[in-house]
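hey can u check if this looks right to u? its 449 residues, i copy pasted from the old doc so theres a chance i mangled smth
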Amino acid sequence: MDAVEFADDTLLDAEAVNSLGETLAAHVSSTGKPWTGFSTDLAVNIDLKDDLKWTAVGFKRVCILPLVTRDRVLGILAVGNREEAAYTQDEVEFLTQLSGQMAIAVENALVLGELRKLKDNLSEESVFDDEIRCELNFEEIVGRSGALQRALRQVEIVAPTDSGVLIQGETGTGKELIARAIHNLSARRGQPFVKLNCAAIPSGLLESELFGHEKGAFTGAIMRKAGRFEVADKGTLFLDEVGDIPLELQPKLLRVLQEHEFERLGSTRTQQVDVRVIAATHRDLKQMVEDGEFRSDLFYRLHVFPLPVPPLRDRREDIPILVRHYVDKYSRRMNRRIETISSQAMEVFASYPWPGNVRELQNFIERAVILSPGTTLRPPLAELKQAIMQSPSSKLSTLEEAEREHVLRAIRESNWIIGGPNGAATRLGMKRTTLAYRIRKLKIPCRPE
């Protein structure tokens, strides 16, 4: 505030106003209560600019109220009256309510200012982008690309319903994160979210995992066990890689989807369940139906609301955001401080096809952080550059050929070992069963050519 001008052209500059305010505040800050009275009762000998006195302003009656919030005096509200009449009780009560609202407004303004200052400081000190989350604020889903936003809008549409969802996408695209987002936005969010990877369970044990078994139902069944459907009652069951469910088990899955009932293995008692099923697959179920590998009635039951998840090559603008996110994540975990990512590295990251999608990128960045002892990220870019050079669009006519070359190279570099910590699946950021399926589809020989 530069100055205060009154109706009679009396002018108090900023220094005078501040001095007057400090004096008035001294009368109420100690008690935290309003003060009313004659102006002459105040300290009239305040030295103001141009030798102005409090009485020179012309006020005869004064009401001073503290701006108090959470037992803290933020300032004062001072009201003057040029008449002799005292402030009435109603007027004091009104001004008291007004001062309370003003105190809240002042406190909010102070807090907002502190938050803005803190945010500005963080943005200046950190190399990482704080706004890496998607615009719709889905937990753990990172990115702002149009392709990802379209998928997340579909999540928002279907989540409040109780319909089944079939999430379709390549391996490593984050299908489980999408399933969790659907559950968390649904009315079942307070109930269990149970997941089962159908490709990770031997076919002979999958029925027991899904529906449970009674004691003695088969060799080794030494006690009763509840299946995933039973555990997920009132909640959500996420069936990952649903395309790997054996044909002989598919009718029982269809029944529980349609009738909401099943029997444990070895039992004749029918159990009722209320479960929302979200399925996911990287396989072409429609083609599997045509090939006789998947039941058509089960396919249409699962295909109520198909939700495609875009591969990373279709959302390349998210790659720098994902890189920063995972660098930040793993540097914190390893107690490193990586502040710089070179533009050259970012260009290579954006040019690489990432056949293993986000999972492959995540694994690569973790390894890059391990290899970076200083404050600059030092990723092994030679691997990515070689893959880019050996599979340009001018030499490979289709994406499938590019993928075949990339997978085959990983297998060769792993000495034709598929699984295990040193196998090609780990190198590609894929599950072993997923890589086995890709090998069959891409017609890659199972031994060196």
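The first strand starts at residue 3 and ends at 5.
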